[in-house]
Amino acid sequence: MKLIVGLGNPGKKYDGTRHNTGFMCIDAFAEAMNQEISTKKFQGVYTKFKYKGEDIILLKPETYMNESGQSVRACMDFFKLKADDLLVIHDDMDLPVGKLRLREKGSAGGHNGIKSIIAHVGTQNFKRVRVGISKMPHMNVVSWVLGHFSPLEYPEIQKGVHNCVDALTCYLDDGFNEAMNKFN
């Protein structure tokens, strides 16, 4: 069984913001798998389905970004999952818009959602797909991540979301190392 989590903030006012890139990616992946993430539980919404005989859980925490770990921990406890079974998709200001970086483990790198997950899961050793949102020099970080992509950035983030869907499919088909080799 695998748990794939997309990070973001709930509510219409956050739709399409840079910080909701994880939600955008997991929604696109759910659509590609003909799934709807709509069951309310674990302080979020999720779906569970079979992919090539394996159970896959897609989760969108609705705790707001800074408390994402509460939702992830509740889901992991319910399904008796280990950190090895977890993959988290999140935005990253240190990458150009739409650029992917897959990692097997690592620090939070200043990302509050990842900090919360590390605190609640008790380890940094879980897979991540970081999706670039770039950063604007001299701009307030909160204003930047809660802002929307510009018309020039939009095609790049759409390409990144599409590549993330492909990377997740590769992960499920061929393993995380193959996905890293192909999409990093």
Structure description:
The chain is α/β, with parallel strands linked by helices. The protein is built from six helices and seven strands. A seven-stranded mixed β-sheet has the order 2-3-4-1-5-7-6, sandwiched between helices. α1 crosses α5, α2 runs parallel beside α3 and α5 runs antiparallel to α6. It is globular. The chain starts with a strand and ends with a helix.
What's the short story on this structure?
The protein has 184 residues and is of the alpha/beta class. 37% of the residues lie in helices and 22% in strands.
Element pattern in H and E? EHEEEHEEHEHHH
Strand order of the largest sheet: 2-3-4-1-5-7-6
Q: Kindly state the mean pLDDT as a whole number?
A: 96
Class from helix and strand fractions: alpha/beta
Helix content: 25-40%
Query: CA-to-CA gap between the ends?
Result: 24 Å
Q: Helical stretch count? A: 6
If you compute it from the alpha carbons, what radius of gyration comes out, rounded to the nearest whole angstrom?
15 Å
Q: Name the beta content range.
A: 15-25%
Give a short account of the largest sheet: 7 strands, mixed
Number of strands: 7
Low-confidence blocks of residues? none
Question: What oligomeric state is this?
Answer: single chain
Write down the overall geometry.
globular
